[in-house]
Design brief:
Largest sheet: 5 strands, mixed
CATH architecture: 2-Layer Sandwich
Helix content: 25-40%
Oligomer: single chain
Radius of gyration: 13 Å
Number of helices: 4
CATH class: Alpha Beta
CATH superfamily: STAS domain
């Protein structure tokens, strides 16, 4: 699977790494993992710095709409996207714009800066 998630429960942190070609089904499975783990309120670091095939604009919009439609959508934790140059970075900026105001979300080019920002954010409510 091109999306790998590690949960660090004591820190209430999820590290999500995306590599390779990503499909809508992959995204649905990853969201399902987050939902069943009970970690939607955790801080999330999403590393999309090197997917081989970034999502389409339509997939980005569909994902944002799907996330909003979930029960307890307001309790989602902050998200830091780690990006490299290119379309994946554009997708992260678009997703952040579509979901801003729902929870803290920010796009970074530096892992250090992303982690520093996440540590300053409070964890979402259960």
């Amino acid at each position: 699977m091109p999306i790998h998630i590690d949960f660090f429960h004591p820190a209430r942190l999820a590290i999500i790494v995306v590599r390779g070609e990503v499909t809508g089904e992959d995204i649905s499975e990853a969201i399902g993992q987050m939902l069943t783990s009970g970690a939607m309120h955790y801080r999330k670091l999403i590393d999309i710095s090197s997917p081989s095939s970034p999502m389409s604009d339509e997939d980005v919009e569909r994902t944002a709409v799907f996330m909003r439609s979930q029960p307890n959508a307001a309790s989602r934790g902050p998200v830091a996207f780690l990006v490299g140059p290119g379309r994946a970075a554009d997708n992260a900026v678009k997703f952040a714009a579509l979901t801003e105001g729902e929870r803290p979300v920010k796009v970074f080019h530096s892992l250090h800066e992303a982690r520093k920002w996440l540590e300053q954010q409070s964890v979402g409510a259960l």
